[in-house]
Amino acid sequence: MTAAPLFMVTNRGRSNNGLNDRRVATLSYFTADATCPNARILANWQEIKQAAFEKAIVQLASQFPLLSDDQNRDQKHVSLFVHGYNNTWDDGAERYAQIKRDLFDAKDLGVLVLFTWPSDGTPADYLPDREDARDSGPQVADLFVRLHDVVVAAQRLAVKNSDPDRFCRAKVSVIAHSMGNYVIEKALAVASKRLNSPQLITLVHQLAMVAADVDNDLFEKDKPVDSDGALMANLCYRIAALYTGLDDVLGASAGLKHFGKRRLGRSGLDDRDDVWDNVFDADVSKLIDTSKAIHSAVFDSPKAMDLLENILRGVDRHQLPLTP
Prior knowledge:
CATH class: Alpha Beta
Structural class: alpha/beta
Radius of gyration: 19 Å
Distance between the termini: 29 Å
CATH architecture: 3-Layer(aba) Sandwich
Number of strands: 9
Strand order of the largest sheet: 3-2-1-5-4-6-7-8-9
CATH topology: Rossmann fold
CATH superfamily: Alpha/Beta hydrolase fold, catalytic domain
Order of helices and strands: EEEHEHEHEHEHEHHEHH
């Protein structure tokens, strides 16, 4: 088992020796060796062109084993991690490196890519951060649309040549934390509209929404068919929301909304009987280490990370390890 390189995409501007909190219109792409000693130092990363970035990931995914349907849980991933509010770029990079090490490398899950957006990194900047998260959505949508084109092209080539070995060998998954879920909400909604709400392809196999700073009625079925939640449910095979009522950060977040809607990551789904059938929630209160910062405790708690692994592997929701 060989660890994959580190990959990073960002819409942050550059300043001195790092990335700043200014959003720019053009995405930048970086990679670092698997043995990178410190992901927080930009000098340890190499900036490359988009084409080279995509080629490197496609080459890695092409080396994944081609498994039968009954080995679905063992299929490897190309996964995107999106950090949350109040994260400087180096904080986000450090969290990414920890998740990559403790989950993807340790469990041989495949390739993990960081998307870092210009969160200001200070609690006082909640509302500006939310605007940056919303405006970052279309840029992440570019990644999803490009992914769709790559997957469809590979499938068509495999069919044309009657060569099953050419079919995509990787699952696509997303782990979003805190306000990073708002980035993903906007990204998937925009991508779905750009792709004319495709019905014949699953773009994201597993979307894990950790401590999601989004409305907890997002996925209700009585909303319009072009609502964000409906568009997300259409593009994803399964969506899991990990929540805990212990999260006071999200309690404060709800208080900043003029309409006072509860946060998905603190309260769970508003009405579990009125959501798309590929959406569910999981209370992680008994799995997290409460001596850690609660808002990010899923990533710091082995039992919660086991749950996250099982979600990504596609374990049935009724078989997930929800008790310590």
